[in-house]
Amino acid sequence: xxxxxxxxxxxxxxxxxxxxGWNVVEAGLTIGLGIAAGSLALxxxxxxxxxxxxxxxxxxWHLRPGHEEDSPERTSLALRIVGYxxxxxxxxxxxxxxxxxxxxRQPDESVWxxxxxxxxxxxxxxxxxxxxxxxxxxxxxxxxxxxxxxxLDGFLAAGTAVGLGLNILFGxxxxxxxxxxxxxxxxxxxxxxxxxxxxxxxxx
Length: 204
Known about the structure:
Oligomer: single chain
Structural class: mainly alpha
Number of strands: 0
Shape: globular
Strand content: under 5%
Order of helices and strands: HHHHHH
Distance between the termini: 22 Å
């Protein structure tokens, strides 16, 4: 392995460690804020953070020291697990969003929650972009897929923040569940692509 590839491999690991640390704190904070405000939007975002921790842990396992060269079996398994994480996120988002749209449930105002989500959108987008760059350098399909999940996490944070803001300013309660549905559709597509790519790696 070249020095550059080894350096990029280690950087990929550290980016995953950073993602895990951020999301552990994020899950506790947003779920706590959601319970305090009675906001399902914030609680749902905290649940998304837990899924992201799981997916990042899979990539840490995939990139762990001593496994710097991909094997078809390990790559296939990592892609399949990340695909399941996408599917789980899609199901959770769609369930909450459809329920809120059907019942007309309006999220409670949470200014602090909206402010935090803006910062989360910036951090997650930056982490996702960096992980995509590293994935291209080391040619890692599982890392690239998980990087997309991180980017979607940032998009969901931005959409949830906008939804909370529109509700606070104009009472547009439906903006948040609509954003969640859009992310859910994207997650379904990503899940399908990951599972198909996993089968391709398994078949060689």
